[in-house]
Amino acid sequence: MSKIGFIGLGIMGKPMSKNLLKAGYELVVYDIIREAVEEVVAAGAEPAVSCREVAERCDKFITMLPNSPHVREAVLGPDGLLEGARPGSILIDMSSIDPLVSREIAGKLAEKGVRMLDAPVSGGEPKAIDGTLSIMVGGKQEDFDECYNILKAMGSSVVRVGDIGAGNVTKLANQIIVALNIAAMSEALVLATKAGVDPELVYQAIRGGLAGSTVLDAKAPLVLAGQFKPGFRINLHIKDLANALAAGHEVGVPLPLTSVVMEILQALKVDGLGDADHGAIIRFYEKLAQVEARKH
Ligand code: NAD
To answer: How far is CA 128 from CA 9, 39, 97, 151, 282, in A?
Structure first.
């Protein structure tokens, strides 16, 4: 089994890379933060000093980076993956980025005979730790088939949704639904609280009905406990909604609800909560209504 490269060892990349080690893959890892590399090396990986070195030592390499500019830099920049990659190797970009940038990077890689899948994930840190992420993949069927087992070591659902870029289009759809759900939950729990009803009991009463959802079950307990440690940072959700709005405008789809939640996120960022979990959307409503929706 050839070694797999893993670049980007943050909230998501760390547990995902550790799950690959647990599944028996040999890993070569890199991050610009040295402590992150040291932590995954302590779990059994080998360190590299650049993206280029990762590509020189592996035929398949995964990136899990914040946004489009970071992936462009890691792949096409100086000492990047493209410089070290051999023809026939495969980049699996698992970051959530602009689908148009996925296509642009895939085009540059193809000139050197390097293949690419865009394979963003949903499920957040808990599912990254459990290895039960939902992975939505764009790229050629044969490349998908070749990488399926690797992806399965990190996720319980691995679905090919189309050609390159389709994974990130699917992720944008996912992020719209998640953001709007958290905003709806926040609006409702703040209303209940100020109307004198215990928001924890409201949550318990409605979670089994039509308003129940994976988002509600993941976020309501944390919000009601006043826990806003990320998780998924507000700044990253701003990035995803910015990509969604850009893609929507590009193809001619107005996204009115997404734009409202985007402005709520922008207000929270101005309020110093950019690095808080996106469950902190409730803080926006709490400030408007001058009440805190917390478990008693
Ligand atoms: P993070 O900021 O915690 O981690 C990103 C890592 O990339 C950091 O360790 C950073 O040092 C590293 N990095 C940045 N530029 C680099 C470069 N040029 N070379 C090497 N390393 C570099 O972010 P995260 O929460 O792990 O998210 C990663 C991606 O996954 C994002 O696109 C995010 O939208 C997506 N995502 C996150 C979650 C979540 O719940 N956190 C859920 C689903 C998807």
So the answer is: 12, 16, 18, 12, 24
pLDDT value at residue 1: 58
Domain ranges of the chain: 4-162, 169-289
Q: Which atom of ligand 1 is nearest to the CA of 125?
A: 40
CA of 14 to the centre of ligand 1 (A): 10
Pocket test for ligand 1, best of 82, 236, 238 (most atoms within 8 A of CB): 236
Residue 296 confidence (pLDDT): 76
pLDDT for 217 equals 97
Strand partners, 155: 133
Confidence bin at 43 (pLDDT 50/70/90): very high
Element holding 39 (H helix, E strand): helix 34-42
80: how many CB neighbours lie within 10 A of its CB? 20
Q: Which CATH superfamily is domain 169-289 in?
A: N-(1-d-carboxylethyl)-l-norvaline Dehydrogenase; domain 2 (1.10.1040.10)
Whether the pLDDT of residue 134 is over 90: the answer is yes
Reply yes or no on whether the pLDDT at 28 is more than 90: yes
What pLDDT, on a 0 to 100 scale, did the predictor assign at position 2?
80
Alpha helices in 112-165 (DSSP H): 124-130, 141-152
pTM reported for the whole predicted model: 0.93
Q: Does domain 4-162 have CATH number 3.40.1160.10?
A: no
C-alpha to C-alpha distance for 94 and 91, rounded to whole angstroms: 9
What 3-state DSSP class applies to 27? strand
